[in-house]
Amino acid sequence: MLLRQHILTLLCVMLRLPFMLFNGLRKPFVRRAHRDPRSIVLIKPCCIGDVIMTTPLLEVIQHNYPRATISYVVGAWSKTIAEHHPAVSEVIDCGTVGIAGRYGLREYLALARRLRKQRFDLAFVLDRSPMLTLLPWLAGVPRCVGPDSLGRGFSLTDRVPVSTSPEHLEHQAEIYLDLARKLSLQVDHPHMHFLPTGAERQTALRSPGLQIAVFTGGGSNPGMDLTAKRWPIERYRILVQRLVQDLGARVLLIGGPGDYELNETLLNGLDVPEGTAINLAGGKSFGETAAQIEACSLFIGNDSSPMHLAAAVGTPVIAIFGPTSPQEYGPYPPDDPKHIALWRHPTGKPCFFLGKMQACTHCTCMQSIAVDEVWSAVQRLIPEGQEVARQ
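-> C-alpha cells emitted (391 positions)
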C-alpha cells in the first residue's frame, strides 16, 4: 500500500508541468472566471460529515458571489446535506463516483460530459483524489481550485498546499475555507449550516424539560468501516443512567437503521422509568434526525456525521474522540464555548488523519475517556435552569 502511494505521488508530480503549461495558456479565461463567475460547481462526493464541514465554504461563496448559481456534485449517500443548504441551486448526484473501488471509467467520463454541458466558470474541488481534481479539467472549467496533497492537485489552476503531518493538522472546514482565501475572497466567521424543513421539524419529539440526544454509533461510511471511533457501549449505558436519574433528562438514542441493535444493547440492563430513554434509530430520515437534534438541549456522541449535524443545527455538543483528532474533525468552529471535544490518545497523534487509517498498536484511546470526564462536560454545558434532578 505504501509503495502504491509513492508511485501515485510520483506520477502526479510528473504530470504537474504539462498541466501548468496548458493552464498558462488559459490565463485570460481564468481571470474572467475569477472576476465574475456566473456558474460555480463544488465537488465533494463523500461522506456526510465531510460534506457538512463544507457548508462554511458554501456560506462564503454565496456571500462573495451573490449573483452566481451554485451547483454541488455529491454522492447519493451524502446529497441530503447539499439539498438542505439555501446557497445550493442544483444538486448533481454523482452516484458512487469518487468512492474508491465503487465506480468505473464509464461512470466517471459520463459525469465529466454532464459537467461539460453546463459550462461552469469556477470549480471548487473539495477532495484530494487525483481523479476528482482532474474532473473539472475534463469538464472544461476554466478555473479550478482545490487542495494539493502529495502533488495530487496537478491539474488545478489554483493549488492550495495541505499538510500531511499529524503534528500540523488543520480542521477540515478550514482546509476548505483556505480555497476561498486562495482566491482572496472575504472570509469572516462562517459556521456549519443545516436547515431542517418545517415538515421535518414537526416530526421531532419535544419535552418541556431537559432532552438530550445520544449517538452511540459512527465510523460506517461507503468505502470505510472504522468502528474503533465508538466509545464503549457499557460506558454509554452508565452515562444515560446518570442523565436520567441525576438530571431528570429524557434521552433520545438517535441513529440510522444500522444503529438500532446497538441502541437496544444499551437499553438492556438500563434501570430507568419508561419513556425516559427512547431508541429512535432507523425511524427518521436524515432531515428529521437533524430536526430532532435541534429540539434537544445537548448532543453527546462519537466523532460522526450526527456530531457535525448537531453543531450545524446549533445544538451544544460533547464529542468523544479516539483514532481521529478534534483538531482535524472536531465540532466547528473549534473555539465555540458551547462545544466540548474529549480526546486522550496515548501517543498524542491520531491514528486516522487526512482520510487514511495508520497502523495502531495501542487501541486504547476510546477506553481512556472515563464516564466521569464526560459527566463533567455535561455539567458545564447543561443550560442554566434546566437541571431537574430526580429525588
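The chain has two domains: 34-161+171-182, 199-381.
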